[in-house]
Amino acid sequence: MILNFNFLPKYVGMILQGCEVTLILVVSCLVLGFGLGLVFALFRQSNSKFLRGFSSVWVNVLRNTPFLLQLFFFFYGLPQLGISTTPLVTSIIALSINSSAPNCEVIRSGLMSVKKGYYECAYSLGYSKFQTFVYFIIPISLRLSFKSLVNNFVNLALTSSVCYSTTLMEITGVAKTVVGRVSRPFEVYLLILILYCVFTYVISFISKAIDRKIHIVL
Amino acid sequence: MCLFLTETADSFNMDAYTQLTPNDLLQLLQSVWVTLYVTVIALAIGTILGILLGISRCSKNKILKYAPLIIIEPLRNSPLIVQLFLVYFGVPVLTGQVLPLYPAAIGTLALNTAAFMAVQVQTSILSIPRGQWEASLALGHSYASTYINVIAQQAIRILLPQAITLYISQLMCSSLVSLLGVMDLSRLAKFTATRTMQPFLIYGIISAVYFALAYPFTKLAKSLEKRISINL
Amino acid sequence: MSMIEVKNVTKSFKIKKEKTMETLTVLKDFSVNFDQEGVTVLLGPSGTGKSTLLRCINGLETVDAGDILVNGLSVNHKKDLSKIRMDCGMVFQSTVLFPQFDVLHNLTMSPIKLLKMPKTEAEEKARILLNKVGLASKEKAMHNELSGGEQQRIAIARALMMNPKALLLDEITSALDPEMTSEVLKILESLAAEGVCMLCVTHEMQFARHVASRIIFMEKGSMVCDTNAEDFFTNARQNNERINKFLQFIGE
Prior knowledge:
The complex is a heterotrimer. Chain A is mostly helical. Chain A has helices at 8-45, 49-63, 67-80, 87-112, 116-125, 129-144, 146-159, 171-182, 185-214. Chain A has a single domain (9-214), classed as MetI-like (MetI-like fold), CATH 1.10.3720.10. Chain A is globular. Chain B has one domain: Orthogonal Bundle (MetI-like fold). Chain B is built from eleven helices and no strands. By secondary structure, chain C is α/β, with parallel strands linked by helices. Chain C contains nine helices and ten strands. Chain C has helices at 50-57, 81-87, 103-114, 119-132, 148-160, 178-194, 205-211, 229-239, 241-249; strands at residues 4-17, 20-34, 39-43, 65-70, 73-74, 88-91, 166-170, 198-201, 214-219, 222-228. The chains are: A mainly alpha, B mainly alpha, C alpha/beta.
């Protein structure tokens, strides 16, 4: 039971390329997923019954169906509609939509923990509803939900591994290819596992530092 | 080979092949069974293991407190699919032993569940105010007795909604075992969608099946959470 | 024309009593005028609509019937609400300082953003006001480093930053202990002496006696008595049994 990492020097370049693709995927989905989540969270707080219902359905469907099927839905479905895209774009679409659901929940709970007094205080100083939201409510609630948003980001990064099934050459996809050539699955997958763990720890560390700076107590 | 082709070329009916048949309904039921079978067993094992690890993490003994991290941390901070590949493809090559599919898949899913469950159990137990421990010990209970009689009930009440949410999330993750070859709902979905060339319909239907399985529990978790926050 | 004209205002709330929805009429056909001078104190038993009146003036509650004009602008026109609120600075019972900013930024933010005041001018004014409320040293403090009384004083300063024509004060000392209450009341006294126009809802009788120039007594959503302070504590008390009972009840 000796572990043999001899394949490493030959395939390092490939693995790094895979990391690059993963990073592009994950960062794009971070931004898009957050934006979408914010939009749906605001829908949920709006006065329109339709928007509230739509947002609720959106979140419930995404949270109660598997990401794998959501991914295949877009990967096999979009070409039928005549839209042809690369695996990367399809993965970004599917993954950002998927991550918008937990982001929406987190942002919403942040918004709800800002008490009525804050709104009234801002209104009585003369701010409009829109200004109140933009200058006070959203910044405060984002600071409150920062930790949970980072948690969602980590989940996003881990879920991104499923995208290899669209033939995307992100880390897991590269790993599969390397295993096919080198026939040392345990070592390769162990390495990939460690890479993901390292990534998670780095994100955790950075987010703790940021949280210390922006932390507020209501 | 040619003989085979010419013989069947005339009799192959494309329309019949791509239509949904009653046989598909039977296959659907079978795959629901497989999905549930895999998930429930994995969750059961994972829960028990997770509770043990979680309680261990609450103890003051250095070994009991930090040893579980060896299992918990890698499993929590890496993707399930990589864990599945590592176990199902990696371990047999390393040990020379063949690993059957179902135990490998269920076992990995169970370990993954245990890792997340352990953290939830730990936070639930630690969130019970110190005063409860002190009152119980002052009355003469031992640590074990305190756990059983005082802490457990309160911890379970806090734990339950989180655990249900975890179970739902693991049900969703169980779809990944289809990538190893398990004939569950997701594998059926891929086969059928490719065969009938109707991805939207088939993935939609199978997603609805998952939704029907999961949504009642989501609602249950939400109502339990509300009950707890009112009581506290 | 008075600064604030309250014209036949009626306001009701729907509250759930057991299994039915009851309508509670808090203000009944209420009319009053306020000029930009002096300190007016609204007195009366709990639930008589005193706070509701202030919140209606400020537009935080909509009126069911009637109108309120603040410098000619009506509270029923949504577009004018922002201007009305800048003219009537309001301080609440439970103060809310914005948690992500320090005290100075809390004070300067609104004039800079809403009145387009230049930053240096705003900061200078903020420091003057901080001095006035006795908290010049707390410029860099965050909200959770301040006591309740200090937070209320900052809230008063923040409201004054917007150059309001009048201050609306809704039971601002009710949630404070006696020591902090007297801190805040001292500040209000000094502001009154400088001529700041104030409209207070309060239960602090000493304050009403010594600082108020006009007292309005309300009961069950209607005006009972509207007179100057001196008259209230002497003649009105003698002539009106309800006023007498109220003052006795609170120990005057």
